[in-house]
Amino acid sequence: MSNSFDFTDRSVLVTGSTGGIGRAIAEAFAEAGAAVIVTGRDADRGAHAVEVIKAHGGDARFIRADLGRGGSAIDALVDEALERVGRLDVLVNNAAQLITPSASVEVSQELIDEAFAVSVRAPFLLTGRIATHMAQHGGGAVVNLGSLNGFRGSAGSALYSATKATMHSLTKSWAAEYGPQGVRVNAVAPGPTLTEKVRAMQDYLAPMIAAMPSRRPSELAEVAAAVMFLASDLSSNTHGAILSVDGGAAAL
Predict the structure, then answer these.
(1) DSSP 3-state of 229
(2) Which regions of the chain does DSSP assign to beta strands (E)?
(3) Predicted confidence (pLDDT) per residue in 90-143, tens digit
(4) Rounded to 10 degrees, what is the CA torsion of 22, 248, 237, 145?
(5) What is the pLDDT, as a whole number, of residue 197?
(6) What is the pLDDT of residues 195-232, one digit of tens each?
(7) Which residue, 23, 74, 210, 231, has most beta carbons within 10 Å?
(8) Minimal CA–CA distance to 4: which of 250, 233, 248?
(9) Which long-range contacts does 113-119 make (Cβ < 8 Å, 24+ apart)?
(10) How far apart are CA 211 and CA 192, in angstroms?
């Protein structure tokens, strides 16, 4: 899929971008001319992601961050990002805790706490700091990664769905809060997307995919393009939107 967006002279921070959807988003922004900050917990995966981006002529650097640690880790990430690129124009809250589908009674309190720490608390703190920075420097865009699960129930996915529904709600609240300050906040809600995890769960997901209007999962590039659209000037009057990239699954 060709990249027709232009993010020249803009800086983008993508959380959880050493693999999967996050890495595809980081690569797409770099291809469009942005200076990209790749983040994640694994330094080797981060270095590899940056190496691939640079090999294709992009501008990227890696900052190791364990977002589940909360305030100190968030502050360190933001401070280092601003030190490296000077200002941030786009924040993509992609990082989320991976959760294996299971009955609610089998979900431990520790996993609940960890999931909300990574998938809700971290983007909450990041958005507070970075959106304020953007407002002080002429504006910017925040794009959250929601999910099809944030719209509808799914047996065995109560915890994951809860975190994503929370991100959908925060998207609208932040749009109301930061829009008047020149910072647009929107979200992309993917359905099944061809990541390594989804490929490994194809048997589990097959009935859902067969019922979707598109009859197929999304490509990584399709999700990345939706994120870039919401971060671009093409959506300059779009605030609080949740853009589904799910083959029509949310319409059923």
Answers:
(1) helix
(2) 11-14, 35-40, 59-64, 90-93, 140-145, 183-190, 242-245
(3) 999 999 998 888 999 999 999 999 999 999 999 999 999 999 999 999 999 999
(4) -20
(5) 78
(6) 887 787 788 788 889 999 999 999 999 999 999 999 99
(7) 231
(8) 233
(9) 114/68, 115/159, 115/160, 115/163, 116/163, 116/166, 117/67, 117/68, 117/70, 118/67, 118/68, 119/95, 119/163, 119/164, 119/166, 119/167
(10) 12
**Both tokens of residue 86?**
């000077």
Position 27: which residue type?
E
User: What was the pLDDT predicted at 1?
Assistant: 45
23 vs 46: CA distance, rounded Å? 9
Token pair recorded at residue 103? 């009955």
Whether the pTM exceeds 0.85: the reply is yes
Q: Which of 7, 62, 160, 178 is catalytic?
A: 160
**Residue 160 catalytic?**
yes
Residue 243 sits at φ, ψ, to 5 deg, of -90, 115
Q: Give the tokens for residue 59.
A: 């501008």
Contacts of 168 by beta carbon, 8 Å cutoff, 6+ apart: 146, 150, 151, 187, 189, 242
What is the distance, to the nearest Å, from the Cα of residue 185 to the centroid of all Cα atoms in its chain? 12
